[in-house]
Specification:
Blueprint: E1 2-6, H1 12-25, E2 31-35, H2 55-65, E3 69-71, H3 75-78, H4 82-85, H5 93-96, H6 107-122, E4 126-130, H7 134-146, E5 152-156, H8 176-197, H9 203-216, E6 220-227, E7 241-250, E8 253-262, E9 267-271, H10 278-289, E10 292-295, H11 296-309, H12 317-324, E11 329-331, E12 341-343, E13 346-347, H13 355-365, H14 368-381, E14 387-391, H15 394-398, E15 404-409, H16 412-425, H17 433-449, E16 462-465, H18 471-485
Parallel strand pairs: 1-2, 1-4, 2-3, 4-5, 9-14, 9-15, 10-14, 15-16
Antiparallel strand pairs: 6-7, 7-8, 11-12, 12-13
The structure holds pantoate (PAF).
Residues 5-7, 38, 41, 111, 114-115, 133, 136 line the site of pantoate (PAF).
């Protein structure tokens, strides 16, 4: 079941959210929409009493968008002990210290409390929320991750009305004249983001300029801030994705909006030990997300194949270096899940999977000259971003500024089992499991102790242990990590 919690006053943004949830269920599940105006998330001077309560219209919109049911619980169902006697959760200060947090004291505590309660009552598989309230969405993602709740969070891009104003239940408070003033909000935000991305203005001046433009348009500015989309803390320099967000008052009505500032398309780095299934899942993940797939493991295999083919000794650095002159490794874009690997124009896609190559690739990949050559080639391929790369040192050496870093691993026992299956499927002889496991442990040792670019988990990588997970479940987990940082509205558009 997919669950779309709302406070009613449904609008086109909700319609898009519900329709996206319906599509994602693919006719197999049901989509429940709830409408509950949660008293806990309103401050004493806020608009709880006059918040739009439009039950009939909500029913019609939810039905039209494809919802299976609309649930309108009353306060006693949600808070059986009343609002002052029941449980209260507190959102951590690190997530509420910026953006709306300081301006709406206790608001996010009310949001996490109600959502936790609703999740307990509904027990959905998916929770759908709008990206417009990015801080809320991110705080809820942290809540679900940190408590290990078995629900996937899905966001949906901000829907804008004809004049650019982000769809919101509160827009209906605006009179005609205010509406004209309010439309300056999104246009100023988008224009500034364009200037920053184009390098025409630096971020600090952009914030000041935006502040001034909003004031001149007749809006009262609460904040203009640039934050990291995951930590919700001021964005560190060098981060490729930052969020420029603002809150204003137009008369009595409070409006929020944001844009993302990117220096390049996102890069996902997937590292981990050999045999953890990195290439299979990375390939499928790239296809699902429309990212380019940079299979660096295949590039190292290609060099190994080349060294062996030319009779070079894989363990001798001078012998290997002598063979690198003029070597061109080329990866084609994925087509039907297949990526062709070429060395100097020759297709060696199958040859690089040979056990002989597997046996020497660690030795060849440890030579500094090989690392330097392939790291340079990979960084060149990554300049524009929009790709996922897998290997052993992508998040540490090749793309230390990757937006999403994952350390994909599995226990040696599990990797030995997978390797045995793979060898069998390819018609090769299968050594016994204990022997395979010993080889894997030895390979891990070699990979993690070599001098150049050893296999280490980057400090900011998320570890994903895949024992017992299906390939599909691993890809879902990668997608969730990607969504955490990269809003759907800035996903790379697949080429062609
Ligand atoms: O975004 C909203 O409508 C509300 O904050 C939510 C998530 C339904 C909690 O009351």
């Amino acid at each position: 079941m997919a669950f779309v919690p709302t406070m009613g006053g449904l609008h086109q943004g909700h319609a898009r959210l519900i329709a996206a949830a319906v599509t994602s269920c693919g006719g197999k599940g049901s989509v429940l929409v709830s409408t509950f105006v949660n008293p806990l998330q309103f401050g004493v001077d806020e608009d709880f009493d006059c918040y739009p309560r439009t039950f009939e219209d909500d029913c019609a919109l939810a039905k039209q968008a494809g919802a299976s049911a609309l649930w309108c619980p009353d306060e006693r169902q949600v808070y059986p002990y009343g609002t002052s006697e029941g449980w209260r959760l507190q959102a951590p200060a690190r997530l509420t210290a910026h953006l709306c947090g300081p301006w709406r004291s206790g608001h996010f505590d009310g949001v996490v409390t109600v959502v936790m309660r609703l999740l307990g009552l509904v027990r959905p598989h998916q929770l759908w929320l709008g990206e417009k309230d990015w801080q809320q969405l991110t705080i809820l993602r942290h809540l679900i991750k940190d408590f290990g709740l078995p629900v996937r969070v899905r966001g949906c891009p901000t829907v804008r009305e004809a004049d650019g104003l982000a769809a919101s239940s509160r827009n209906r408070y605006l009179g005609d004249a205010q509406r004209t003033v309010a439309s300056a909000f999104s246009s100023a935000l988008c224009a500034i983001a364009r200037d920053v991305c184009a390098g025409d203005v630096d971020e600090a001046s952009a914030q000041a300029a935006l502040h001034q433009q909003l004031r001149e348009a007749g809006l009262e500015v609460e904040y203009v801030e640039t934050v990291d989309p995951v930590t919700l803390q001021p964005a560190r320099p060098g981060r490729s994705i930052r969020m420029l967000a603002a809150a204003v008052r137009c008369g009595e009505t409070r409006l929020i909006d944001h844009v993302f500032i990117m220096t390049r398309s996102p890069i996902v780095a997937i590292d981990g030990p050999a045999g953890a299934g990195k290439s299979t899942v990375t390939r499928a993940f790239a296809e699902r997300m429309g990212l380019l797939y940079l299979d660096t493991g295949a590039m190292y295999r290609a060099v190994t194949w080349w060294v062996q083919k030319n009779g070079g000794d894989p363990s001798s650095a001078p012998a290997v270096e002598a063979l690198l002159e003029g070597l061109e490794v080329d990866l084609s874009p994925l087509k039907d899940g297949v990526q062709t690997v070429r060395v100097n124009g020759r297709d060696i896609t199958d040859a690089i999977r040979d056990p002989e190559v597997t046996g020497s690739v660690s030795l060849v990949a440890a030579h500094p000259c090989v690392r330097a050559l392939l790291t340079r080639q990979q960084q060149r391929l990554g300049e524009r971003g929009g790709l996922v790369a897998e290997g052993r040192d992508i998040g540490t050496a090749v793309f230390p500024d990757a937006d999403v870093k994952v350390f994909l691993t599995a226990t040696p026992e599990e990797r030995a089992r997978r390797r045995a299956k793979d060898l069998e499927a390819r018609g090769h002889a299968v050594p016994d499991l204990a022997e395979l496991e010993a080889q894997i442990v030895e390979r891990d040792r070699l990979d993690s102790t070599r001098d150049v670019a050893p296999l280490v988990q980057a400090d900011d990588a998320t570890e994903l242990i895949t024992d017992g997970m299906s390939i599909e479940a691993v890809i879902d987990a990668l997608e969730d990590l990607f969504r955490f940082r990269v809003a759907e509205e800035i996903w790379p558009k697949p080429e062609g």
